Amino acid sequence: MAAYTAVGYQEDDEGEVMALLSARRARLIGLVLALVLLGSGAAAWIQRERLLTWYYLRNLMHATEANAGGCIQRVVAHGEQAVEGLLDCMTHDDPSLCLNARTALERIGNTLPQGETSWNRVTGQIVEAFPRLSVPGQRGIMAMTAEWLQPSAQPSPAAVQFGGRMLSAASALSDDKVRTSALDIAASLMAAQPNGDELVECRSLARCCLKDSDPHNRTRAVHLALYPKLEILSDVAPLVRDPVAEVRHAAILAVGSSRAVISDERLATALHDTDPEVRRLCEKALLGRGLTRHHIHLARLITDSRPATRLQVLFHLRDDSDLDAAVWLRLLTLDPAESVRLAAARAAAEFPVIELHDRLEQMATSDPNPTVGVWARYYANSLKQRQARSAAP
Q: Is residue 243 reached through a cis peptide bond, with omega within 30 degrees of 0 on the bond before it?
């Protein structure tokens, strides 16, 4: 009886163990199934999001003016996931589509904290995609970047870095509208006091745009060159003779006060400008350098296109002992007309102007006209004899 009972108990224990194992197995299988279903649900959800993003991007590509706002809003709701598709939209030549895509991209960017991983990821996508975008797409991206860098918005270091990268990406483009937005970006970067790569990119852009085919861009580049950190005012000086009056105005205002950038005689050529405002600005700049109105009258004569008019400076030098004859005669000895150079050499010996002996010696050996060279030697010897007589006891 005892044996039977023991055997019975053993059978009961084994049954309980098997039941317990079966329950655990069932729970494990259930958990696995739940995870599989959850994973499938998550994958399905992700796939659903991708399909919706694709669907709304497709609607955006075919949007009319009436429903564009709603299409943009739906795309923006998908955030970073829509960025690649929006950049693809901007490879098309349709200006309206590029504008809608730019609007959506800008709104998405405005929702991302600048400098954090998501912002860096999106801006990296933009820089990488920029070269393959259409012209309207590139214009939109540059305009959007300029908006993000407005001085009133106090751009973050991350935004400044992004602006520098965009300038670099746009540097090889020939579209003047892209360069216009690039100048907006550069102005914002300079207001933020950049250093390193951003400063280099701003300097490179300014120099490029000083030679731009669009006069508006040349004028903007002159304004940009006024930032001392760029150190490119010497590149502005040739624009004093730009074919467009607006550019000449800006150039004279930029360099007119600096003899280190442009000499008095080079600046004085603008006294003959066809535009009255250019002439006025030039005269004002020369007065600011300390020249008198009599000096400016002589400068106007000596920069005249007619040799006979330039020679009139000699009469003023004879009549006004307060003028520094050496300065004006030296300029006349450099005149392109041999008649003017010869008259100046003779006047140097007649006055006499001992300081011009070195210049006459130079003319004697290197003047392009042999006759002028011969007479320059004669007048140089005459000056040397006068100097010797005045030095004798």
A: no
